[in-house]
Amino acid sequence: MLQARLIQVMAPVLKLARCFFRRNAHDMGDLKTLLSSCLLILLATSQGRSETDLVSAMASCAGRYSAELEHAWLMDDPRSEILSRQRENTLSILEAITTADAARDILNLRIDAKHAHARLLTMASFGTAPSETKWAKRQSRLFLQNCAAMLLDS
């Protein structure tokens, strides 16, 4: 039982490693992404979290980073390069841990998270009620902090 579970857990890690080394990755960022994905997979299995929780969380983060990046471009925010890198790292991890059967559902989760985060950013930037604006800014910041923590990028 344990051996089967270990094989199931390590399969996405090996897939990710092949992906990186196939591209002749020599960048520390690629190594960091590989190590963080290994850590995420191990944490998910050791804490009793299912792999679907991890995949859902990464899909949500990918959507949130997409919304944040688009908002940064529109608002001429200097963080756009950092956000772009975080989004790419998230997508690399997500690609490695997503099965073909779940790809459509994962894309749906990404789109839903992107729209939800875009609504938060719109409320934060253009809201009329100060308390609503403050709440939206805090929520969007907290969501991205959680995503950055999963990337070991906080």
Q: What would your notes on this structure say?
A:
The protein is mostly helical and 154 residues long. The chain has one domain (2-150). Helices cover 82% and strands 0% of the residues. It has helices spanning 2-22, 28-46, 51-74, 80-97, 103-126, 130-150. Helix 1 packs across helix 4, helix 2 packs across helix 4 and helix 3 (51-74) crosses helix 6 (130-150). The N and C termini lie far apart (35 Å). The mean pLDDT is 79.
Structural class: mainly alpha
Number of domains: 1
What does the overall shape look like? globular
Percentage of residues in helical conformation: over 70%
- Mind describing the biggest β-sheet? none
Assembly level: single chain
Q: Radius of gyration in whole Å, from Cα?
A: 17 Å
Low-pLDDT segments: none
Distance between the termini: 35 Å
Order of helices and strands: HHHHHH
Total number of strands: 0
User: If helices are DSSP runs of H or I spanning 4 or more residues, what is the number of helices?
Assistant: 6
Strand content: under 5%
Give the integer mean of the pLDDT values: 79
Write the layout of secondary structure elements.
Blueprint: H1 2-22, H2 28-46, H3 51-74, H4 80-97, H5 103-126, H6 130-150
Helix pairs in contact: 1-2, 1-4, 2-4, 3-4, 3-5, 3-6, 5-6
